[in-house]
Specification:
The chain contains 17 helices and 22 strands. By secondary structure, the chain is an alpha/beta fold. The longest helix has 17 residues. Bound molecules: 1-O-alpha-D-glucopyranosyl-D-fructose (TEU) and calcium ion. The site of calcium ion has 6 residues, from loops.
Length: 580
């Protein structure tokens, strides 16, 4: 049973039953628990068709319980043609054929709740699939009553209405022959953007959300929710490469907070939900609005500044390492700026990011544990992405034919086709940064296809499954899995829970190029977190204020040697002490 930091309270209780200690420190279940993200297509295939499914997820609830998980976020499971693997929804109230039936979903939800696991759904309402009935009608004629559910514009001088570029390459405008107009799509041309200025669209979305809440789900992760209000007049933006990236013109738009406050009034406020906005382009100032402690919008948001630190000058397709001092500065900014005024989320991995152990670490289990320690002792809700808890790594993709991700494939075609990038060099960058690195099948054991499927997997399995897999790690007390299990238990159910969840944060040694060290303080308890994010041994000067003689080791990935003023740190060593 999940516990709050001070007392055990069942999930059945609503937030209102938990004593509020002032708005900014109100105790909430979604502040005190870790969220595990499942990408259903790649998690577990129960019927041998090579694609993960809902019954596969249900068969693994015991594994998640063993890890200590009480909150699951499912990437989209709704009916979809899978142009963008479910982020193109054709029917919000039906389950994707490959994933099973609504009865399978109901069974999963019921069994998860019986095991004290909440389920958060992925809400994709910035756009639908072009196969959604709304768009089929909207595109059928200029005077169809659903025409204004989407964003249609006349050609300008025979061309696209503006210079915006899609996140998946090309223009954001697709010409529609039937009615002789362009429609807007910030992602693929099969993902037309909804027109949120239309109150009928908001009514449809809020009705659908209510339908899912009445089924008993426990929250929403809101896909690119910062993009639903576009800049007035859709003006040209600054060009980078072939187009003006649409994110410069559609994020944090003029009405986004109005729309979310309306959503909150009409739906969210009526249930005990966790809501997390995937707010592309969000700044700290905007996050204070989206995730304010007055509860008028969302519980929290995902920011993307830290995972953009290793972007190239024009796009993400490079292999430049991430600067640790820059990472320290950015994560500290978010910790300090949001403290007391908004709730933070903590992630390095998700289905859109390469594997963090390959990006920040050296693929070793020790580096995986070190990276996890950095994140899991901060203030905010931590997210664990499927396989991250095993130390799953990037995949050795070969040719472009090995990829399935529309973003990677389109980028390769556009950039090599325009002669902007040399194929071999670009493939190396795609291999390092592609979203498919996170989408290779979950590695359950060392049987064929890593135990993910008895059929032909929809995407290649990482060959290192023979050594990196759940079965091996459940049996090894020194595994990455067991390290994550301990981190999760320390936050959710230990004598340190209160200071981990609600304590204040302060960075130490900002100038140190490899050691990420910080403190957490609450009610006279201080945690000292020291992580050597490098493959070299280092010494770290411990502040004079630290009294080692009272130190108690909370966790770490190597047996701690001598506690001295100049602390000797092994490569990738992480350690956390409690100081009186
Ligand atoms: O991602 C939006 C988004 O910001 C990502 O496309 C990100 O810009 C890119 O992946 C980083 O390289 C959300 C979903 O998480 C993603 O899977 C979908 O493809 C996208 O929206 C469209 O729904
Ligand atoms: Ca299947």
């Amino acid at each position: 049973m999940a516990r709050s930091c001070k007392e055990k309270h069942s999930f059945a209780g609503s937030a209102a039953e938990v004593p509020l200690e002032g708005r900014s420190t109100a105790r909430q279940w979604w502040k005190e628990n870790v969220v595990y993200q499942i990408y259903p297509r790649s998690f577990c295939d129960s019927n041998g068709d090579g694609v993960g499914d809902l019954n596969g997820i249900r068969s693994k609830l015991g594994y998640l319980k063993e890890l200590g998980i009480h909150i699951l976020w499912l990437s989209p499971v709704y009916k979809s043609p899978n142009d963008d693997n479910g982020y193109d929804i054709a029917d919000y109230r039906a389950i994707m054929d490959e994933f099973g039936t609504m009865e399978d979903f109901d069974a999963l939800l019921a069994e998860a709740h019986q095991m004290d696991i909440k389920i958060v759904m992925d809400l994709v309402v910035n756009h639908t699939s072009d196969e959604h009935q709304w768009f089929v009608e909207s595109r059928s004629s200029r005077d169809n009553d659903k025409r204004d559910y989407y964003i249609w514009r006349e050609a300008v001088d025979g061309h696209e209405p503006n210079n915006w570029g899609s996140c998946f390459s090309g223009s954001v405008w697709e010409w529609d022959e039937t009615t002789g107009m362009y429609y807007l799509h910030c992602f693929s041309k099969k993902q037309p953007d909804l027109n949120w200025e239309n109150p009928k669209v908001r009514d449809e979305v809020f009705d659908m959300m209510t339908w899912w809440c009445d089924k008993g789900i426990d929250g929403f992760r809101m896909d690119v929710i910062s993009m639903i209000s576009k800049k007035e007049g859709l003006p040209d933006g600054p060009v980078e490469g072939l187009y003006s990236p649409c994110v410069y013109s559609v994020c944090n738009g003029p009405h986004v907070h109005e729309y979310l406050q309306e959503m909150n009034r009409r739906v969210l406020s009526k249930y005990d939900l966790m809501t997390v906005g995937e707010t592309a382009g969000v700044t700290v100032e905007e996050a204070k609005k989206y995730a304010n402690t007055d509860g008028t919008e969302l519980s929290m948001v995902f920011q993307f500044e830290h995972v953009g630190l290793d972007d190239g000058p024009v796009d993400k397709w490079c292999t430049d390492p991430m600067s640790i001092p820059a990472l320290k500065e950015n994560l500290t900014k978010w910790e300090k700026e949001l403290e007391g005024v908004a709730w933070n989320s903590l992630f390095f991995c998700n289905h859109d990011q390469p594997r963090v152990v390959s990006r920040l670490g050296d693929n070793s289990p020790q580096s995986a544990k070190c990276i996890a320690t950095v994140l899991h002792f901060m203030q905010g809700t931590p997210y664990v992405y499927q396989g991250e808890e095993l130390g799953m790594t990037n995949c050795p993709f070969g040719s472009i034919e090995d990829y399935r991700d529309i973003e990677s494939i389109n980028a390769y075609r556009e950039l090599t086709g325009a002669g902007l990038r040399e194929p071999k060099e670009l493939l190396e960058c795609i291999a390092y940064k592609s979203r498919d690195n996170a989408r290779t099948p979950m590695q359950w054991d060392d049987t064929p296809n890593a135990g993910f499927t008895t059929g032909q997997p929809w995407i290649m399995v990482n060959p290192n499954y023979t050594t990196i897999n759940a079965a091996a790690e459940l049996a090894d007390p020194n595994s990455v899995f067991c390290y994550y299990k301990n981190l999760i238990a320390l936050r959710q159910d230990s004598k340190w829970s209160d200071v981990i969840v609600y304590g204040s944060y302060d960075l130490l040694a900002p100038e140190d190029e490899a050691v990420f060290a910080y403190t957490r303080r609450k009610d006279g308890v201080t945690l000292l977190v020291v992580c050597n994010l490098s493959a070299q041994a280092r010494t770290f000067p411990i502040p004079e204020t630290v009294q080692w003689d009272s130190a108690e080791l909370v966790t770490g990935n190597v047996p701690q040697a001598e506690l001295t003023r100049q602390l000797a740190l092994a490569p990738w060593q992480a350690a956390v002490w409690a100081l009186a």
